Amino acid sequence: MFDRQNTNMNNFEFDNSYTGDNGVNYNDIDINMMQNEGPDMNMSMMGGCQTPISECPQERQVHRTIMHEVPHVCPIRTRIINHHVYRHTYRPEYSCCEENVVSNIQCGSCSQFR
Predict the structure, then answer these.
(1) Is 28 helix (H, G, I), strand (E, B) or coil?
(2) Cα-only R_g, the chain
(3) Which own/partner pairs from 2-6 qualify as long-range (CB within 8 Å, at least 24 positions apart)?
(4) What pTM does this model have?
(5) What's the CA gap between 61 and 25, in Å, rounded?
(6) Closest by Cα among 24, 26, 28, 25 to 13
(7) Pair 11, 29: CB distance under 8 Å
(8) pLDDT (tens digit per residue) in 43-96
C-alpha cells in the first residue's frame, strides 16, 4: 500500500462482467468517491477536481490452451508369402502285355513220307 496525503475513500464495484471473444474478462467499473471535509482537501470551493494519482500497474494473465491436430502417416506394409509344398505320393498303376512264344515240334520230316 502507498501512503498518500489523500483523504479520498474510493469504493470500486464491478458490475456486468463478461468474457470477450478473445477469452479476456472485461468488467464495467462504478467508482464512488467520497470526499472528507478537512484542511488538506485539494479541491477548491468552485467544484474543481484534483489531478488523478497514478497507481502501480496491475497485470492480468490469461492462460489459453490451443489444441493443434497434427496428422502423422504411419505406413504399414503387408507382405504375403505363399509357401508351396509338393507332397509326392506313389500309387501303382497296373498294365498288361501279352507275348506269344512259338515252339515247333518236329515229328519227322517230309522226306519220311515219300
Answers:
(1) strand
(2) 61
(3) 2/55, 2/56, 4/53, 5/40, 6/53
(4) 0.24
(5) 10
(6) 28
(7) no
(8) 555 667 888 889 999 999 999 999 999 999 999 999 999 999 999 999 999 999
The Cα 43–Cα 37 span in angstroms is: 10
- With a CB cutoff of 8 Å and minimum separation 6, the contacts of 40 are 5, 7
Strand intervals (E) in the chain? 9-19, 25-34
CA–CA separation, 104 and 86 (whole Å): 55
> Which residue shows C-alpha cell 515219300?
114
13 with 30: CB under 8 angstroms? Answer: yes
Convert the pLDDT of each residue in 2-20 to its tens digit.
Answer: 455 554 444 445 455 566 6
Contact 20, 28 (CB under 8 A): no
**What's the CA gap between 29 and 16, in Å, rounded?**
9
Provide the CA 107 distance to its chain's centre, in angstroms.
Answer: 114
